[in-house]
């Protein structure tokens, strides 16, 4: 199954890359996106990340042998295969995921906070899967690389995606081209889960910053209250928190 409107031409435009290769393939849609060369399938777009010990570019010949349609690249390649030249594979991934989100009708639930994100994600996904086709974040795919990759796993049959977003080190501030906050613009329902005393002013300040970064657009963190910001629901869940003797959370 191909990804809706994810043609090589559209991908190149979305990430401000330069398409190099067979012009007749520019209108072909990719069937998936993968950074692990071992997991490449027919029609995939390959992401050659450069690590401390391994350069993903070294595996480009192998991914084409496995059926990849195209690859991103941070350097010019001497190959007779299509590729998209970009300045940064990581930045390109975020921009591509942002563009893909615009093609989807799937509702997205974004979960972040200081503690309990994974268990909250699992509970919500489990309950919703009783009625809906649900995609959820797998493993540790909650950072600035894993989150866009999770977004790109959404297919037309998915009705809801439950996506976990790392809290701290600005991992949830996914900035794409034009300084647009990709995940903030993508979330339909936001859930912030914390487990600290609410009188901790430093935490409240930091959490408010993160809340703004994911696009919820508020500077206060109401306890035990659901709020609606710009048509998106924001649920602030507080575990073991106290304010004037009130308890709220699960």
Task: Describe the protein's architecture and organization.
By secondary structure, the chain is α/β, with parallel strands linked by helices. Helices cover 25% and strands 21% of the residues. The protein has seven helices and 13 strands. Helix 2 (60-65) links the parallel strand 3 (44-46) and strand 4.
Average the pLDDT over all residues and give the rounded result.
77
The residue fraction in helices comes out at: 25-40%
What topology, given as strand order, has the largest sheet? 7-8-6-11-13-12
Amount of beta strand: 15-25%
Report the sheet with the most strands, covering strand number, pairing sense and barrel closure. 6 strands, mixed
| Cα radius of gyration in angstroms | 20 Å
Quick recap:
The protein has 250 residues and is of the alpha/beta class. It has seven helices and 13 strands.
Give a topology summary.
Blueprint: H1 8-14, E1 18-20, E2 32-34, E3 44-46, H2 60-65, E4 70-73, E5 83-85, H3 89-102, E6 107-113, H4 117-128, E7 134-136, H5 146-151, E8 160-164, E9 175-176, E10 180-181, H6 182-186, E11 189-194, H7 201-213, E12 226-229, E13 232-238
Parallel strand pairs: 2-3, 3-4, 4-5, 6-8, 6-11, 7-8, 11-13
Antiparallel strand pairs: 1-5, 9-10, 12-13
């Amino acid at each position: 199954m191909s990804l809706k409107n994810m043609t090589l031409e559209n991908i190149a435009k979305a990430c401000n890359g330069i398409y190099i290769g067979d012009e007749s393939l520019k209108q072909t849609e990719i069937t998936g996106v993968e950074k692990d060369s071992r997991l490449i399938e027919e029609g995939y777009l390959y992401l050659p990340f450069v690590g401390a010990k391994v350069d993903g570019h070294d595996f480009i010949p192998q991914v084409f042998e496995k059926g990849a349609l195209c690859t991103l690249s941070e350097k010019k390649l001497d190959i007779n295969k299509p590729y998209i030249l970009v300045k940064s594979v990581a930045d390109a991934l975020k921009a591509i995921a942002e563009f893909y989100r615009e093609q989807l009708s799937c509702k997205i639930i974004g979960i972040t906070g200081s503690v309990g994100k994974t268990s909250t994600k699992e509970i919500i996904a489990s309950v919703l899967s009783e009625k809906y086709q649900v995609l959820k974040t797998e493993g540790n795919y909650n950072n600035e690389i894993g989150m866009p990759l999770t977004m790109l796993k959404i297919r037309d049959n998915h009705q809801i995606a439950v996506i976990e977003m790392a809290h701290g080190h600005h991992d949830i501030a996914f900035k794409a081209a034009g300084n647009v906050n990709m995940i903030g613009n993508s979330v339909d329902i936001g859930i912030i889960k914390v487990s600290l005393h609410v009188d901790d002013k430093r935490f409240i300040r930091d959490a408010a910053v993160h809340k703004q970064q994911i696009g919820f657009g508020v500077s206060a963190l109401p306890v035990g209250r659901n709020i609606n910001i710009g048509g998106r629901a924001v649920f602030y869940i507080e575990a073991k928190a106290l304010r004037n003797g009130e308890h709220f959370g699960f």
